[in-house]
């Protein structure tokens, strides 16, 4: 029996991205090339692998079974090639990373720039967006996320632990008093990012306080600025305050209740094979943060 891999890579790309155009972008070819290859594969097998309509592409029953086996073959072949070539290959293509917040801008971006300098043929795209990403449809290699991980279908590797700090300006505290307990915050003006619930540590036990924000923004810098200007109390990772804490424009409050073990994660899709560009970038970040302290 003659075994041909002709069209299999294109078929797997269509199945993973749910479309011919997306598959073409992923492989760096035109749509007509993808269409010809998949059609030739279907003709060779004598079955329809994909059900096409004007708007969607879905796998047939035969296509679903074929895809499950072919995906393993394609990933296995890629991994075998990259295992041999890891030490000598020049990384190329696009590494697409999703991140959000001041931490990513101050610490992740500079390290990925350094990684890019080590691999001149690699293009790196960073998308600063706090929303969770679709790793298949949006073609992200990995993301940087902060806090508890809720999606068990993803792989999360801890990058580092960070401490939350509650702080306010002296002007605000003089006018409104200093909270003695996290529950006192319900009568204070609070400055928030995306989460309306703040998580504290009460003698080793978790304490959640749900609050109505006085100021809300997905820009950490604007929250810190509002805190410095006396608008209210902010509760952020220590590094997010930057010079505001060091320079004394804001002062700590509720220190005994701070949550000091909030993890920052590298998150990626649960898949059998991780491309060399992603695997090496992830390992590079993990190595750089091995002894990092906030």
UniProtKB/TrEMBL annotation:
Keywords (A to Z) from UniProt: DNA-binding, Transcription, Transcription regulation
Name all HTH lysR-type domain ranges: 11-60
Query: Is-annotated flag, keyword Disulfide bond?
Result: no
Q: Does the keyword Flavoprotein apply?
A: no
- Highest taxon of the lineage: Bacteria
Protein family per UniProt: Belongs to the LysR transcriptional regulatory family.
For this entry, the protein name equals LysR family transcriptional regulator
Q: Which SUPFAM superfamilies match?
A: Periplasmic binding protein-like II, Winged helix' DNA-binding domain
Per the UniProt record, the source organism is: Paraglaciecola mesophila
């Amino acid at each position: 029996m003659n075994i041909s891999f002709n069209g299999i890579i294109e078929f797997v790309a269509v199945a993973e991205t749910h479309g011919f155009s997306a598959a073409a972008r992923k492989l760096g070819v035109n749509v007509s090339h993808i269409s010809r290859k998949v059609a030739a594969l279907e003709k060779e097998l004598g079955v329809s692998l994909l059900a096409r309509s004007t708007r969607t592409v879905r796998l047939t029953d035969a296509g679903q079974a074929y895809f499950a086996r072919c995906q393993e073959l394609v990933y296995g072949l890629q991994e075998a090639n990259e295992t041999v070539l890891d030490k000598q290959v020049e990384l190329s293509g696009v590494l697409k990373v999703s991140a959000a917040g001041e931490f990513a801008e101050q610490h992740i971006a500079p390290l990925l720039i350094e990684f890019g300098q080590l691999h001149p043929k690699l293009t790196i795209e960073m998308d600063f967006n706090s929303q969770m990403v679709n790793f298949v449809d949006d073609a992200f290699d990995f993301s940087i996320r902060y806090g508890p991980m809720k999606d068990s279908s993803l792989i999360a590797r801890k990058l580092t632990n960070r401490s939350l700090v509650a702080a306010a300006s002296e002007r605000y505290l003089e006018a409104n008093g200093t909270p003695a307990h996290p529950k006192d915050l319900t009568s204070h003006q609070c400055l928030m990012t995306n989460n309306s619930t703040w998580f504290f540590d009460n003698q080793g036990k978790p304490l959640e306080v749900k609050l109505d924000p006085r100021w809300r923004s997905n820009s950490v810098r604007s929250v810190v600025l509002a805190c410095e200007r006396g608008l209210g109390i902010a509760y952020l990772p220590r590094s997010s305050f930057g010079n505001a804490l060091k320079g004394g424009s804001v002062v700590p409050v509720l220190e005994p209740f701070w949550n000091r073990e909030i993890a920052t994660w590298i998150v990626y899709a649960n898949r059998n094979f991780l491309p060399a560009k992603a695997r090496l970038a992830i390992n590079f970040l993990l190595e750089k943060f091995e002894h990092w302290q906030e």
